[in-house]
TrEMBL record:
<dbReference type="InterPro" id="IPR028939">
    <property type="entry name" value="P5C_Rdtase_cat_N"/>
</dbReference>
<dbReference type="InterPro" id="IPR053790">
    <property type="entry name" value="P5CR-like_CS"/>
</dbReference>
<dbReference type="InterPro" id="IPR008927">
    <property type="entry name" value="6-PGluconate_DH-like_C_sf"/>
</dbReference>
<dbReference type="InterPro" id="IPR036291">
    <property type="entry name" value="NAD(P)-bd_dom_sf"/>
</dbReference>
<keyword id="KW-0521">NADP</keyword>
<dbReference type="GO" id="GO:0055129">
    <property type="term" value="P:L-proline biosynthetic process"/>
</dbReference>
<dbReference type="GO" id="GO:0005737">
    <property type="term" value="C:cytoplasm"/>
</dbReference>
<feature type="binding site">
    <location>
        <position position="69"/>
    </location>
    <ligand>
        <name>NADPH</name>
    </ligand>
</feature>
<keyword id="KW-0028">Amino-acid biosynthesis</keyword>
<keyword id="KW-0641">Proline biosynthesis</keyword>
<dbReference type="Pfam" id="PF14748">
    <property type="entry name" value="P5CR_dimer"/>
</dbReference>
<keyword id="KW-0963">Cytoplasm</keyword>
<dbReference type="InterPro" id="IPR000304">
    <property type="entry name" value="Pyrroline-COOH_reductase"/>
</dbReference>
<feature type="binding site">
    <location>
        <begin position="21"/>
        <end position="26"/>
    </location>
    <ligand>
        <name>NADP(+)</name>
    </ligand>
</feature>
<feature type="domain" description="Pyrroline-5-carboxylate reductase catalytic N-terminal">
    <location>
        <begin position="18"/>
        <end position="116"/>
    </location>
</feature>
<dbReference type="GO" id="GO:0004735">
    <property type="term" value="F:pyrroline-5-carboxylate reductase activity"/>
</dbReference>
<dbReference type="InterPro" id="IPR029036">
    <property type="entry name" value="P5CR_dimer"/>
</dbReference>
Length: 292
């Protein structure tokens, strides 16, 4: 039995219950990943949504479902706020009108995955004077326990809160802490960036098909090539720069240089840099829209 001693009481891992307010794609991916990794059992997960359409995926996992956000609040000690940024205000106000936030267990942790919504705005809702509020960003690879997750903490951040986050996020990929000022950059690189990787994979696969490979074969080659490159880069972190790894594949006048020349001529790296920036800016805009 794992327990964390917090100034606001004791947090027992064996009694962890995770509640999702919002049951869309990100919430579903998180639930799948945590269950697959053994972080939590399905009967310790509950999700709420106004309709049953998205809740079907949670039912298939063996989780509890409800149409009431209040039920999630009462049944869970880790609350994942997984609604669109512009919906957070109305969701929390609905909770406040139906629940006395002062009665919420002090060990409860509120985790927001709403893009762009800053901690200062989240803490304006005064969940509880001694309750931890955390902002995270992650991506849909969570479902396969290969997520990249970043977190930042509100004004109430006990050491035990950070320990709980480690228990939550390290089994499902990589987890880092970031200053909140860089969270929107993270959205562009990882939250949205995983879609950029899918586009690159699609382009490579299309290249193979264009030259005669069957689609399934071409997909397999593209996916394994990107996976191999990622693992090789990961194994060399702190030892060799990405540019050095790229150059190690090149021979003067060879096939790789011919392909890289085409990528440079079409400004692929610049396009990726601009894509990250565009997603970052959009995350900032969504956060501003959530204030209105």
């Amino acid at each position: 039995m794992i327990r964390f001693q917090c100034p606001n009481g004791q947090f027992s891992w064996d009694k962890v219950s995770i509640g999702f307010i919002g049951a869309g794609q990100m919430a579903q991916a998180m639930a799948k990943g945590w269950i697959k990794a053994g972080v939590v059992k399905p009967d310790r997960v509950v999700a709420s949504a106004p309709t049953n359409r998205n809740l079907a995926a949670f039912k298939e996992l063996g989780c509890s479902t409800t149409n009431s956000n209040v039920d999630v609040l009462k049944m869970s000690n880790i609350i994942i706020i997984a609604v669109k940024p512009h919906m957070i205000g109305s969701v929390v106000e609905d909770l406040r009108s139906n629940v006395d936030f002062g009665t919420i267990k002090k060990q409860t942790i509120f985790i927001s995955v709403a893009a762009g919504v800053p901690l200062a705005d989240l803490e304006k809702f005064h969940f509880n004077a001694v309750t931890s509020v955390v902002r995270i960003m992650t991506n849909v690879a969570f479902a396969e326990c290969q997520a990249m997750t970043a977190s930042c903490f509100g004004s109430v951040a006990y050491p035990c809160t950070k320990e709980v986050l480690t228990m939550l996020f390290e089994p499902v990929g990589s987890h880092i802490s970031l200053p909140e000022s860089l969270m929107n950059v993270f959205v562009g690189m990882s939250g949205s960036g995983i879609a950029f990787m899918f586009s690159l994979l699609e382009g490579m696969s299309d290249g193979g098909v264009r030259l005669g490979l069957p689609r399934e074969t071409s997909n397999t080659i593209a996916i394994q090539t990107m996976l191999g490159a990622s693992l090789l880069a990961q194994a060399n972190m702190g030892k060799r720069k990405l540019a050095e790894l790229r150059e190690s594949v090149c021979s003067p006048g060879g096939t790789t240089m011919a392909g890289l020349y085409t990528l440079e001529k079409n400004a692929v790296k610049a396009a990726l840099m601009e894509a990250v920036e565009a997603s970052c800016k959009r995350s900032e805009e969504l956060g501003c829209a959530g204030k209105k």
